[in-house]
Amino acid sequence: MMAILLKPGARVVVQNALSAYGREMIPLMREAGTQLVAGVAPGHGGREAQGLPVFDTVAEACAATGADTSVIYTPPFGVADAIVEAAAAGIALAVAAAEHAPVHDVMPALAFARERGMWVVGPNSLGLLSPGVGMLCGLPPAFGLPGRVGLISRSGTLSIVMLRTLSAAGIGQSTAVSIGGDGVIGRRPVEYVELFDADPATDAVVVVGEIGGGKEAELAEATARFETPVVAMIVGRSAPQGRRFGHAGALAGSPAETADAKMALLREAGATVCTSPAEVVEALRGLPAPVGARRQGRCEATT
């Protein structure tokens, strides 16, 4: 079973493991097959969290368990410090759940993480789910279905909606990622699509974008170079310019940040643009090479 980011055998540490959210999500991550090895809660080393040994620091947890992945359940004002601590300890992949982390704290923390080679999903993320491999943070494992479609969404809620819609239609996922709804996040949509495009287990990518920012415009500029088909849905078409909807990143501050403008750019770049989850399903079913056959065809053509 292939997946992007979360690989089989990843060893996961839970930061702020004694929090209510952490305690609630630990069983769900286990249910999905995630290999949880430790929790971190400063000042509580030696305790247990849902059967996980708890350490005072991420560095101690990594030294004792070989952890290489982290889920960060710290409150907003602790997100930046938690990201820096994880990156300094050698963590390769971290998911930050909290919404509204202070921007001026998070920006240098994310820069430090990138310098250290740590991929950060979020902040303001429900995490990622690779059906058959594992789940990090909070995407419901029961909504996933193993398959060959990648999914990214800025909105956590829409991640769940699209995940459930695809699975109900019998379209499985290689990996689904709630990339983060805050204005400043660890990685841009185009970086995720680059991973999916290089993944032999992914035949198409669904991108759920929304008003605000230039992330979808950047993706449109890069779409032509991807071999993997991109199916996009941009929400917020009825949102008045200048009014924030939902989370921090959903604010169209200029005409270029509206849903209509982003849809036009993506359509011109060659992406299939949809206006509803049902249309996304039909678009995937209508791809020239059916999902599940595209990569096989490429391999046969090169042998």
TrEMBL record:
SUPFAM superfamilies: NAD(P)-binding Rossmann-fold domains (SSF51735), Succinyl-CoA synthetase domains (SSF52210)
Lineage: Bacteria, Pseudomonadati, Pseudomonadota, Alphaproteobacteria, Hyphomicrobiales
MF GO annotations: nucleotide binding; succinate-CoA ligase (ADP-forming) activity; succinate-CoA ligase (GDP-forming) activity
InterPro entries documented for this protein: Cit_synth/succinyl-CoA_lig_AS, CoA-bd, CoA_lig_alpha, NAD(P)-bd_dom_sf, Succ_CoA_lig_flav_dom, Succinyl-CoA_synth-like
Organism: Lutibaculum baratangense AMV1
A Gene Ontology BP annotation from the UniProt entry: tricarboxylic acid cycle
Protein name: Succinyl-CoA ligase [ADP-forming] alpha chain
Active site (UniProt): 247
Start and end residues of each CoA-binding domain: 5-101
Cross-referenced Pfam families: CoA_binding, Succ_CoA_lig
Gene3D superfamilies (alphabetical): NAD(P)-binding Rossmann-like Domain, Succinyl-CoA synthetase domains
EC number: 6.2.1.5
Keywords: Ligase, Nucleotide-binding, Tricarboxylic acid cycle
SMART domains reported for this sequence: CoA_binding
Signal peptide range in chain numbering: none
PROSITE patterns: SUCCINYL_COA_LIG_2
Keyword Transport part of the UniProt annotation: no
Cellular component GO terms held in the UniProt record: succinate-CoA ligase complex (ADP-forming)
